[in-house]
Design goal:
This protein has 420 residues and is of the alpha+beta class. 29% of the residues lie in helices and 30% in strands. Strands 10, 11, 12, 13, 14, 15, 17, 20 and 21 form a nine-stranded antiparallel sheet that branches. The protein has a five-stranded parallel sheet with strand order 3-2-1-4-5, with helices on both faces. The longest helix is centred in the middle third of the chain and has 21 residues. The structure holds adenosine monophosphate and glycine.
């Protein structure tokens, strides 16, 4: 069959590589893809908000399975757009995608089903928000309701920062804001927890620790993710049982109660405190770079998993994993997450050692005249599998040193809590 993959990041390159391994798959089209996907698939440049043009591609290229990587097209209803057509579309529909698209929707669901999460209040104007903040203790968390490309969360250390956040949100920094959320600041260690579901059957899809901060020691600004490792060091049977019973199952049941059938990956961003899980947020997709970290451990045919999920037969498939430890280190353009230069040549890519335990997924790259150029903040994802995290990290660092890209930087300390 022909397969379409929507997205252009490291996550989509990793999905593309896994899908490519399936004997069922003939040709893959990535929309728009990156330099990495162009080596195993055909990249097609289409604006991801142009569903009509994506549909034309699906028809003209006889695509039978369409996999949606990022949240935006999901929240904008790409799955609903294809309803009634023959193509199987992997991902949640628009109502289900509110789990990521509206933080207030998720908080209300948590309240109704007693899902552990930070205490919260919903405010619909600036003066009420500020009145509440006047008598609050800090730090406190303020959030825009809708999608904000990872920028709508403010951890405020004092009243001034909190007022600034309220003003930014109500002044429309993330689009028209009817409401905002003020939340209790949770303390603990974060963990990324993944499942795949067809709305009835729910299966584990791995865990990871993501390093979001730009500087070593988990300091500095927040980024899209500087690296990750899987499995999470926090995972144990007791915790996993609590995550499923207190958070994941009530969420899927809560959606069913309002006639929403969730189909796709579900990514729970959790805070773990003394082996108790609290939901920070849901994402309706795989994480990035967690996807690049987790997928190389998958033994089962990913295409079969996607198809069985689309056909409501997830129960029929056994998902098997390799026991190795996996790590990913992200190579970024100097300056990221602030300003950085674009269209910078990356030489030495041929010096990287690639095999089934050493992978390099592209993110912000394009290829032109047989050369590869960086166009994004996060550029390449180096992944290694090994019996232990230290060996995995050393293998990645060796590859990064071989590449020796002058315009890039990376964190050498990914996984420091499981290594040092
Ligand atoms: P983002 O991924 O941009 O939505 O950022 C969310 C990040 O903000 C999370 O990964 C946490 O680090 C932090 N965060 C969000 N809500 C809370 C909370 N209630 N308490 C503590 N940290 C939070
Ligand atoms: N790794 C964080 C995210 O994908 O949102």
């Amino acid at each position: 069959m022909n397969v379409g993959i929507i997205g252009s990041g490291g996550r989509e390159h990793a999905i593309c590589l896994s899908v490519k391994k399936s004997k069922k798959v003939n040709k893959i089209y990535c929309v728009p893809g990156n330099a990495g996907t162009s080596e195993i698939a055909e990249n097609i440049e289409i604006d991801l908000s142009n569903f009509d043009e994506i549909k034309n591609l699906v028809i003209s290229k006889k695509i039978e399975l369409l996999i949606i990587g990022p949240e935006k097209p999901l929240v904008n209803g790409i799955v609903d757009f294809f309803k009634g057509s023959n193509v199987k579309v992997f991902g949640p529909n628009q109502l289900a995608s509110q789990l990521e698209g509206s933080k207030i929707f998720t908080k209300k669901l948590c309240e109704k089903y007693k899902i552990p999460t930070a205490k919260f209040g919903i405010f619909d104007n600036s003066s009420e928000s500020k009145k509440f903040l006047e008598k609050s203790s800090f730090p406190i968390v303020i959030k825009a309701d809708g999608l904000a490309a990872g920028k709508g969360v403010y951890i405020c250390e004092n009243k001034n920062e909190a007022f600034f956040a309220v003003d930014e949100i109500f002044n429309g920094r993330f689009g028209l804001a009817k409401n905002l959320l003020i939340e209790e600041h949770l303390i603990g260690e974060e963990m990324s927890y993944f499942v795949i579901t067809d709305g009835n059957t729910i299966k584990n899809f791995g865990t990871a620790q993501d390093h979001k901060r730009v500087l070593e020691g988990d300091k500095g600004k927040n980024t899209g993710g500087m690296g990750a490792y899987s499995p999470s060091r926090l995972l144990n049977l007791d915790l996993e049982k609590k995550i499923k019973e207190k958070i994941i199952y009530p969420t899927i049941k809560g959606l069913q109660d309002i006639k929403i059938n969730y189909k796709g990956f579900l990514y729970a961003g959790l805070m773990i405190k003394e082996n108790e899980p609290f939901l920070i947020e849901y994402n309706v997709r795989m994480g990035d770079p967690e996807c690049q970290t987790i997928l190389p451990k998958l033994k089962t045919d990913l295409t079969d998993i996607f198809i069985s999920c689309c056909e409501n037969k997830l129960d029929d498939i056994k998902i098997e994993w390799n026991e190795k430890k996996s790590m990913c280190i992200v190579l970024c353009s100097k300056g990221y997450p602030d300003e950085y230069k674009k269209n910078i040549l990356i030489k030495n890519l041929k010096k990287i050692n690639i095999d089934s335990n050493n992978l390099c997924f592209h993110a912000g790259t394009i290829s032109s005249n047989n050369e590869i150029y960086a166009i994004g903040g996060r550029v390449l994802n180096f992944v290694a599998l090994s019996k232990d995290f230290k060996t995995a990290r050393n293998k990645i660092l060796k590859n990064l040193k071989n590449l020796s890209w002058q315009n890039g930087f990376y964190r050498e300390d990914i996984g420091f809590k499981v290594i040092d």
